[in-house]
Amino acid sequence: MTVDELKRIKERARTFDKVEAGEVHVVVGMNTCGIASGARETMHAFQEGMKRLGIKGRVFQTGCIGMCFEEPLVDIIEAHKPRITYRHVDGAKAERILEEHLSEGKVVMEWAMAQFPNGGKPLEGLPLYSELPYNSKQKKIVLRKCGFIDPEDIEQYIATDGYFALAKALKEMTPEEVISEIIASGLRGRGGAGFPTGLKWKATREAKGSPKYVVCNGDEGDPGAFMDRSVLEGDPHAVLEGMLIAGYAIGAKEAYIYVRAEYPVAVKRLQKAIAQAKKYGLLGDGILGTDFSFDIKIKMGAGAFVCGEETALLASIEGKRGMPRPRPPFPAQSGLWGKPTNINNVETFANVPAILLNGASWYSSFGTENSKGTKVFCITGKVKNSGLIEVPMGITLREVIFDIGGGILQDRGFKAVQTGGPSGGVLPESLLDLPVDYQELSKAGSIMGSGGLVVMDEATCMADVARYFLTFTQSESCGKCTPCREGLQRMYQILDRICQGNGRPGDIEDLEELARSVKDASLCGLGQTAPNPVLTVLRYFREEVEAHIRERRCPAGVCVALIRYEIDPEKCKACGICRKKCPVGAVEGAPKVVHRILQDKCIKCGTCLEVCPPKFSAVRKV
Amino acid sequence: MPRLTIDGQVIEVPPGTKVIDAAEALGIVIPRLCYHPALGPAGACRLCAVSFLDGPVKGVLMSCSIEARDGMVVSTEHPEAVSFRKQVIEWLMMNHPHDCPVCDEGGHCLLQEVTVASGHCRRRYPGPKRTFVDQDLGPFVQQEMNRCIHCWRCRRFYQDYAGYRDFGALGIGWRTYFGRATSGVLESPFSGNLVDICPTGALTDKPSRFMARRWDVERAPSLCIHCSLGCNVTVSAHLREIVQVEARYNGDVNGHFICDRGRYGFDYANHPLRPRSPAVMGEETSWSKAIAQAVAGIEEVTRAHGPKAIGVVSSERASLEAMVTLSLLCEETGWEGPAFFQDEETLVKNRLLAQVALSHGIAGLREVEKADLILIVGTDPICEAPLLALAIRQAWRRGAWVGALDPRPIELPLTFEQSGLWDEELKKALLKGAQREEGLEEVLPGWKEALDRSREIVVILGPTVVDISSLRRCGEFVSKLGKKARIFPVFRGPNSLAASALSRESTFRSLARKIREGKIKALLLVEADPFHGTKMRGELEASIRSLELTIVIDYLPSEVVKRAHILIPSATIYEGGGSFINQEGRLQRASPVHRGGIPLRRNLQGNLRPPRTFAKGPPGETAKSSWQVLLELGERIGKGLGIEDKEDIWKVARERFPFLWQVEPGGRISWEGGGVQEEAMEEEEDPSQSSQEMRVLLVTSTFAGEELSQYSSKLDPVRNEARAFFNEEVASQRGLRRGDRIWIRMGDVRVPFSVKTSPKVPSKLLILDPGNEGLWREVREVSKTIGWTEIERA
After folding, report:
1. CATH level 2 (architecture), domain A462-550
2. Cβ contact (<8 Å) for B174 and A474?
3. Can the peptide bond before residue A583 be classed as cis, meaning omega within 30 degrees of 0?
4. Is any Cβ of chain B less than 8 angstroms from the Cβ of A510?
5. How far is B144 from chain A (nearest CA, A)?
6. In angstroms, what separates the C-alpha of B43 from chain A's closest C-alpha?
7. Is the pLDDT of residue B535 over 80?
């Protein structure tokens, strides 16, 4: 493969999304989010239906366009007509779209979500995709191809300027120039810690020892985070290209992608991508006619959260138990098998091709003073539009949650947002106007993290949230260092006691002391950040935790031990519904006898409250 | 060289030194649990936190993980660091059971020490303590997981340092469990070190469990004499019984560790049948009577047949004091001997090995650890000198290439090349190697590349399976490699090098010949059992029986002891101490640990208790080492040596054998070897060349075959069964598979063996390891070759 051949492939494949007259392209969102919502069935329905109805064209898959809450998404592309996006397309809906839209040319307006201009007259009454509130504030760099190309087809990637950044680096730039370009762009590690990527590359390039390695950290373990998975599933070649460029810059010939085995689709697509890249001569010996050789291997992780920590990840690649070790030496000096190793996150690598193609100044025009570019987030929790977004740094949390996320589910009140997963903090409403930026988040007691945003509504108990995150971190602690192993368990026990209504005065102070010492004393990032949720809860929601201890009351009505369901004898009409529905037989009563809840039997599941007819409203939570 | 200040004291340390070690050099011991000099920093316990007040790094940081750098100002007593460490102790104590009163570690427990030092005394957290279910880890190591504080030392030693995988960390977080997948005997022959390195009572010594409190035992520095490495140990005795052996740090020899043979082989000293009292014709008698009888007997034989009719036999396990006394006594009296070796071939091999090694630069365990190319010739490290395997592994971990030329299927905890060569093939290979540098590439792929990049080469050479000409060839081969190569000799006994140096022509075989010829009428055996490992039992028995007088001085209940006319018990190394020269020529001394005597068992099973007698010393005490007995004998027959005590022996020896004694204990001797009379040796024909028969090679294993540890009941549970190693192809042609049971007929005895196969075993060789097979002792003569007609399926 030479650069000329690459250009020829680009010319040839350029037309992949151009549709001939009389043909139809059906594009189905087939990321894990789509597949989980039934996209396989949808895709199958379109394939079969087009055959049956004799419609010319083809059906192909694409990655996640970001709107996970609308999956399965299907795009219909016809020549000289706007491209129409349908949402929630299951098998039955596919049939009607096939019949009305594909056969008769009538857009099924009730399911259509948006349109893309694609030549021809725009359809009336259907918003443009880019004008959807979900999209208008986003800026897609990493995700620019997700949802538009088939991730399993290298030619579509090449057609969209794929591997031209690599060609530029290999043909026109020295490794030092590549590194200074990355430094100039201000790109910082997207895995969470935010170390300047270019400086890391420089340190690895200058480190003594050979061979050197490039490692891609795709061990995404935070609850509620799926950025890396979406990028690997939607645009695997961007990651490969980023790694190739990093390899050229630091002088490495071998690389590993560490990806969790729980991401089968991502693994499969990566395997295909690597095989295709090898076939096209973009991996292997003498890439693009230069003497640069590079090979990438996949290492599947077994799902330990701590393996996201770089030294633990490297140990895991070496076949050892995934446990961190003291730094220094940093991986740049002594990493994989004791050799200089550059380790970056999936998203970091995916940024690299765009930076090289468009230039550092273009990239650094996005974002804030010390956080450049964009960041991919997963918004989940009690928010209307949960999905994958990419926003310029510096955007406020309010914009993310209310403009993009569409506000809180069931229009309840907002209570808190958790950034950075179990390592991050819980931020209250008063900080909604905080710009998303490494420094600002850190000042507020949280971290940028890899990009999980969990939104909580007013029905969330913050003591319970803190306990939940500790459940996770204390069971995912590798058990190596004392503070993380013993301290987190003890913090969990205290919080659990508080949530059980057995809190004691002094517990909060103990928690704070423990949290601070665990943060200071732990060996790796897991322990150093695990107390963050507790610390921020105590900082912003102290009264709520105190209410658990002083008044034995859970203000949000969540902590099971602190709530009780009662039947108001005045209002109960002895209809018997709650008696029949109670799963443990805790409702006592008979026809025409006012019902009563036996508190020692009740498991506080809340069924009685749910089923009590609104006209009576006899059950209440106390 | 970085200069830093620790607690106001300035010190300059070599680059790369960790702050914790720099402080130790100043005499400031920073508390630590996970850090161990041999295992390096882990950063796990967080106890070694100190305050960095100024310099390149600042704040409270772990001194085990931070290298000393110029300008650092460190305070170990800064309030921040002290409270940090106190917090760590509090965490560790949250789940610790506080069962010190019933814990064997109590009194020498690192955790106990640092906890008391931290001032922690109040439990602030009322939550439940974590508990685990314990496993049975075999006869040596007692697990008590509730006491574990997760320092990871055991796992780092067992898997990383020693290279065995059956013990490790299971689970994560606070549930992390150190053990095996299921209960079972630990596979590593180094498992006892877990006891030493565990900083608390989670892993304790099982054989000595509940036997003594630490402050009640008698302890002294001693030496391990179960192979030729001379590892340093600390021995504990209690109520006249040796209860525990621990590794004693010696950076020049064994470092921090010892093997399980050395650790649990001590029990011969407590053996219930150990000779405790002098005996004449099997009847117990008093010291004075036994000595008088011996003197009378010697005088009678001398009168009738002259002094040359008395033969003197000792062995490679005798102390240097005994060897020297014996040599001097023989010179003085004109007795035949002393013979330290079984036969001429063994003697010549040992002397030659010593000479070859000494003339090429002798290597010890430290040189092995530093080497980048290791060639093993005719040695099975795990079986012959177990700790050597650990040293090889350390070199391998640093990138050394390891190759082996040996017909046995060697097992090592590392990746290495092996070629199963023996005899002619081995000779040929070594010749090729001696001719051209890359000559070994044919038999050991990777040799040439390793040789090209090597800077320090160690050739490990043992005399058991290699014949004399191959030994000589190996010397030529090593000279070809040049100055960067050294030889690491592996001898059989703890004092073999001294035995080679002090040996004259006599060997046991030559004395036996003279017995048959009627020239020798009496034998004096000093800490020697010719029956041990003999291939000619029948002949030996006849020779011994034909003697007019057999005097045995020994501490083992050996076979020759049972046949002695006059038996005089001697003291073990634990009671008498002694000097030994290890395989690299290092002179080392062991101190006496206790006075000895019949162990005062506390199980009240009548017969095990010593008799109630009234005497000056404890019942069964053997106050005398063999050299003292010899001096007394010499005195009584009018051949006094003018030696009163050990100091005198050392003084005389320094004059008479300067090559052995110029150095202070701990140094290496300056003997150059020499005196090998090769022409005396006729090479035996290879009898298998012309027949269908296989030649027999007799070998020993780690826990069976070494003389002293054979008498240690502590090792009984791990002794292997008798094994017969066949070439894989030959065995399958005969329908034999790994694990099959066979009988091998030797004379009129059928001995059961378990079949082992390996492609490495040469096809015309049958390797026999008698293991713990009792029937083996019935074999009157071990056949040199074995045909298939003598092998039958069980």
Report:
1. Up-down Bundle (1.20)
2. yes
3. no
4. yes
5. 18
6. 6
7. yes
Choose among B265, B134, B258: nearest CA to B203.
B134
pLDDT at A103: 84
What 8-state DSSP symbol labels residue B354?
A: H
Assess contact for B373 and B450: CB atoms under 8 A. Answer: yes
Instruction: Tell me which residue in B62, B124, B150 faces A479 most closely, judged by beta carbons.
Output: B150
For residues B48-57, give the mean pLDDT.
94
Question: Would you say residue B688 has pLDDT above 70?
Answer: no
Closest chain A residue to B168, measured at CA:
A321
Domain B3-92 class, CATH top level: alpha beta
Sheet holding B9-12, edge to edge: B9-12, B3-6, B73-75, B49-54, B59-62
| Count of beta carbons in the 10 Å neighbourhood of residue A319 | 7
Q: A16-135 falls under which CATH superfamily?
A: Glutaredoxin (3.40.30.10)
Query: How large is the ipTM?
Result: 0.87
Torsion on CA atoms A57, A63, A65, A66, rounded to nearest 10? 150
Strands A414-419 and A341-345: unpaired
pLDDT at residue B604, rounded to an integer = 47
Q: Domain A564-621, what fold?
A: Alpha-Beta Plaits (3.30.70)
Alpha carbon separation from B435 to A143, B355, B377 (Å, rounded): 66, 21, 17
The C-alpha atoms of residue A3 and residue B397 are separated, in whole angstroms, by 44
Q: Where in chain A is the domain with CATH 3.40.50.11540?
A: 162-363
Render pLDDT for A264-285 as a digit per residue (tens, 0 to 9). 999 999 999 999 999 999 999 9
Mutation site for B-interface testing, chosen from A480, A507, A523 by largest number of B Cβ within 10 Å: A480
User: At the topology level of CATH, where does B687-793 sit?
Assistant: Barwin-like endoglucanases (2.40.40)
Instruction: Tell me if B3-92 shares its fold with B346-497.
Output: no
Instruction: With CB atoms and an 8 Å threshold, state whether A486 touches B94.
Output: yes
Contact assignment for A482 to B84 by CB distance below 8 Å: no
* C-beta atoms of A485 and B173 within 8 A: yes
Chain A nearest CA to B166, separation (Å): 14
Q: Cα separation of B178 and B733, whole Å? A: 45
On whether any CB of chain B is under 8 Å from the CB of A496, the answer is no
* All residues at 6 or more sequence positions from B651 whose CB lies less than 8 Å from its CB, including other chains: none
Could you tell me the residue ranges of all domains in chain B?
A: 3-92, 346-497, 687-793
- Distance of alpha carbon A515 from alpha carbon A535, whole angstroms: 7
Give B29 to chain A, closest Cα distance, Å. 20
Dihedral of CA A459/A463/A466/A470: which sign?
negative
- Give the angle subtended at the CA of A325 by the CAs of A320 and A328, to the nearest 5°: 135
In the CATH scheme, what is the code of domain A162-363?
Answer: 3.40.50.11540
Instruction: Give the separation between CA B167 and CA B187, rounded to whole angstroms.
Output: 8
**Residue in chain B lying closest to A514 (CA):** B87
Residues 6+ apart with CB under 8 A from A433: A396, A397, A398
Return the pLDDT at B655.
87
Closest CA to B578 of B648, B528, B625: B625
Interface residues of B toward A, Cβ cutoff 8 Å, are 41-47, 49, 60, 62, 64-65, 84, 87-88, 91-92, 94-95, 124-125, 127, 130, 149-150, 152, 168-169, 171-176
Strand residues in A63-131 grouped as ranges (E): 74-78, 83-86, 112-116
